[in-house]
């Protein structure tokens, strides 16, 4: 286990408001990490900064063995470097089947050589991806008729098709039934065995099930970090987040 992502002294101001304030923390590989914190704490902005959607005013975000500074790379280069992001709302091709969605994602892989030819094991890979996200029985169904939870899983499958080293996931459990939440937990735990998975989540029961290290953000900085029990016992966390 080693640091894959090192955020050092990052700040970002929007119209005079410090959304991210001298933020420093790191994520290992492999690792499952949850980021929690009140609304406006800077969680989404953190993901925007890592993926290059937003540029910081100062600080560095180092990634991988070469310690490349992501703040100097384009969004496309960051994605090619193996960073995938799942937004809260699922974005799948509704008119295509589950299988076609996964196939498209495989073709969009960051290795250009594999895009040119249909790989002989493509259908095996689609079946494997579908199994990893609990969609083996729906391969020939149109994505548009899937439940909200299934669409979220399909999108996770499409991201896994690209074999990210770092997967950023924004509130995966929102709008899910408790059975769907449980399956989502298992999926993320499994995915994080071989990569870094960072999850923003408000649902504390869901975070508890993830059973991972938790980083609490507040006013753009790390307020506390550790196990969920550890951070929940921290009076500062109770004051700004839990005690409301
Ligand atoms: P969280 O995801 O923890 O709820 P955000 O990262 O979305 O927090 O937002 C942090 C703060 O930065 C908020 O006060 C928000 O209004 C502000 N903010 C985020 N993005 C922008 C933007 N593009 N322009 C202006 N203010 C922004």
Automatic annotation (TrEMBL):
<dbReference type="Pfam" id="PF00005">
    <property type="entry name" value="ABC_tran"/>
</dbReference>
<dbReference type="InterPro" id="IPR051120">
    <property type="entry name" value="ABC_AA/LPS_Transport"/>
</dbReference>
<keyword id="KW-0547">Nucleotide-binding</keyword>
<dbReference type="Pfam" id="PF12399">
    <property type="entry name" value="BCA_ABC_TP_C"/>
</dbReference>
<dbReference type="InterPro" id="IPR027417">
    <property type="entry name" value="P-loop_NTPase"/>
</dbReference>
<protein>
    <submittedName>
        <fullName>ABC transporter ATP-binding protein</fullName>
    </submittedName>
</protein>
<keyword id="KW-0067">ATP-binding</keyword>
<dbReference type="InterPro" id="IPR003593">
    <property type="entry name" value="AAA+_ATPase"/>
</dbReference>
<dbReference type="GO" id="GO:0005524">
    <property type="term" value="F:ATP binding"/>
</dbReference>
<feature type="domain" description="ABC transporter">
    <location>
        <begin position="5"/>
        <end position="244"/>
    </location>
</feature>
<dbReference type="InterPro" id="IPR003439">
    <property type="entry name" value="ABC_transporter-like_ATP-bd"/>
</dbReference>
<dbReference type="InterPro" id="IPR017781">
    <property type="entry name" value="ABC_transptr_urea_ATP-bd_UrtD"/>
</dbReference>
<dbReference type="InterPro" id="IPR032823">
    <property type="entry name" value="BCA_ABC_TP_C"/>
</dbReference>
<keyword id="KW-0813">Transport</keyword>
């Amino acid at each position: 286990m080693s640091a894959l992502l090192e955020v050092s002294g990052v700040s970002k101001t929007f119209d005079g408001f410090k959304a991210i304030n001298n933020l420093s923390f790191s994520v290992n590989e492999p690792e499952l990490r949850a980021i929690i914190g009140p609304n406006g704490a800077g969680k989404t902005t953190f993901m925007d900064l890592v993926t290059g959607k937003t540029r910081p005013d100062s600080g560095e975000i180092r990634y991988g063995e070469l310690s490349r500074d992501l703040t100097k790379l384009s969004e496309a280069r960051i994605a090619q470097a193996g960073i995938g992001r799942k937004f809260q709302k699922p974005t799948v091709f509704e008119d295509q089947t589950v299988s076609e969605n996964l196939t498209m994602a495989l073709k969009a892989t960051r290795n250009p050589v594999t895009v040119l030819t249909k790989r002989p094991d493509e259908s095996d890979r689609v079946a494997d991806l579908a199994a990893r996200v609990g969609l083996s029985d729906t391969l020939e169904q149109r994505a548009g008729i899937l439940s909200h939870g299934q669409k979220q899983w399909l999108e996770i499958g499409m991201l896994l098709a690209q074999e990210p080293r770092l997967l950023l996931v924004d509130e995966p459990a929102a709008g899910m039934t408790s059975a769907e939440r449980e399956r989502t937990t298992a999926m993320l735990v499994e995915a994080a065995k071989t990569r870094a998975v960072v999850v923003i989540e408000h649902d504390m029961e869901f975070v508890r099930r993830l059973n991972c290290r938790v980083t609490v953000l507040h006013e753009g900085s790390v307020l506390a970090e550790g196990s969920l029990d550890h951070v929940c016992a921290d009076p500062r966390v109770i004051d700004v987040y839990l005690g409301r």
